[in-house]
Every structure is written in C-alpha cells, then in structure tokens.
Amino acid sequence: MLENINLLNGMNDKMAFLMQRQRVLAQNITNSDTPGYRPNDVVEPDFAKALGRSKNGTGVQLSLATTEGSHIPHLQAVGAPQELSTAQQRRTYEVSPVGNAVDLEEQMMMSSRNNLDYQLITNLYNKNLEQLRTAMRRSGS
Amino acid sequence: MELFDAMAISASGMKAQGTRMRVISENLANSETLANTPGGDPYRRKTISFANELDRQSGVNKVNVKQIGQDQSDFRLKYDPTNPAADEKGYVKLPNVNSLIETMDMRESQRSYEASLGSIEISRSMMMRSMDLLRSR
Predict the structure, then answer these.
(1) Could you tell me which of A138, A140, A131 has the C-alpha nearest to residue A1?
(2) Cβ contacts (< 8 Å) between A34 and chain B: which residues?
C-alpha cells in the first residue's frame, strides 16, 4: 500500500511535465505568425526512473529500516524530481516563406492530447487517494 | 504557476492578433480614400509584423507587435478628369489596398485568434482538473 505514495510522487512529476508542456504549446500557438519562429517542445523525462525503476528493470531504491517483524517494508525510490528541459522541435511539417515553422493544427492536436493526458493523471491520482482513504477508514463506519 | 504563464502567453497572442485586425480594418475602411490635393498621394496601405519577445519577469516568450509599416507598392491609376484629386493629365491615384488580400489576412488572423482562445480553454480545463483534486473528498 505504501508504494502508492511513491506512485503519487511519480504522478506529480507527470503533472508538472504536462503543465510545462502546455505552457510551451501555448507559446508555439501564440507565435504562429511570428517571422522566423521555430516551435519548441518539452523533452519527456524517463518516468519509469521516477518510480524507482529504470527501463531495464534495475533502479536505485532505498528501504526504510524494519526493526520489528510486524513492520511493513517500504521501498523508496532515490532521485531528485526530474529536471524538465525544452528543446526545439526538430521535425516540422512545413516552413512558411517568412521562416515560421509552426503548424497550427499539429500544435492544437498536441495541446488537446496533453489535456487528455492530464485528465487521465488526475483521475488516477483521485483513484489512488480513494484507495488510501479506504485503507485508512475505520472499520465498521 | 505554469498554467498562468500559458494563459498570459495566449493572451499576448490574442492582443497581437487584435492589433492586426485593427490595421486590416483601417486598410479596408480607407480603400477608397483619395488625396486632398490634385495629383497628391492617396492612403497608403499599412502592414504589421510580429516578433517574439522574452518577458523577463516571467521568463516566457510572448508575442508583440514589432512594427506597423507602410506598403511601398505602386498606386493604381484611374482616368477620371472630373475628380478633385486628379492630376493635370486627368489621372487619379487610388490606394494600394487590395480587398482580397485584406480579407484573406483577416481570416488568417481570426484562425490564429481562435487557436489562442482554444489554448486558453485547455489551460483552464487543466487548472479546473487540479482544483477538482481538492474537491473530491
């Protein structure tokens, strides 16, 4: 059950990423008529690492000391919150004669997918909190 | 917060498109404005260009109107000797405004404005989702 809190941390990272991405996409859409502007995107961090698992299945994990047999072992992923970096979008559909490479449709699509991802994460977050609440509820009430 | 920044960026884009709309309507409204003196120059079409600008306070790239310039293309000539603005040969200079170009420009501006508006909607809905996390107790 306590792994859930770890999961909540991971979701936090994802939400921060999605918010940052929304900011960058808004910037792209706003600059869709600016001469010479090239669109940016946020580099997606490795979320598996945030959950204490790297892609090959090995990650650094610390566990809380258990001094009694009834203690529940808790694994805690080590690692600071992921740093987000913005990079120029390399692959673009077209570049207009004034050097603007923003494709409005593409950006809108990314933006709405971003929104859906965010909804997914907030729903999952809620479900997790619900699970925790179920576990914490007094029996018989 | 990132989402407030996102909204501020979109708002700056909408403001820039609003200024563009103003310039376009100025051009359309003056598409028949002739000179006051015989043989003088009529209304000259205005152009607008944008530039992205770093807002140092929030560290985001907003869009701003770079300059409102003038279109230096040639005026159209029309033979109309009775017109008060006609020169000694009887030709009147008409403004270099092409209403087709202006209309297309207007459409493009409208689309960009709508895109920024959509972006604000999405930022807003993400913000609402965050607040819903607090509400669902």
Answers:
(1) A131
(2) 50-52, 63
For residue A126, pLDDT beyond 80? yes
> Which helix or strand (DSSP H or E) is residue B29 part of?
helix B2-29
Across the interface, of B1, B109, B123, the residue whose CB is closest to A26 is B123
Chain A contact residues (CB < 8 Å to B): 15-16, 18-20, 22-23, 25-27, 29-35, 37, 104, 107-108, 111-112, 114-115, 118-119, 122, 125-126, 129
Is the model's pLDDT at B23 over the cut of 90?
A: yes
CA distance A92 to A89: 7
Yes or no: say if A23 and B3 are a contact pair by the CB < 8 Å rule.
yes
What is the rounded average pLDDT of the residues B114-137?
88
Integer Cα distance of B16 and A27 in angstroms: 13
* Nearest-angstrom CA–CA distance, A137 and B77: 86
What amino acid occupies position A124? L
A16, A22, A107 ranked by CB distance to B6: nearest = A22
- First vs last Cα of chain B: how many Å apart? 24
pTM of the model: 0.78
Residue of B2, B13, B129 lying closest to A30 (CB–CB): B13
Residue A2: its pLDDT value, please?
A: 57
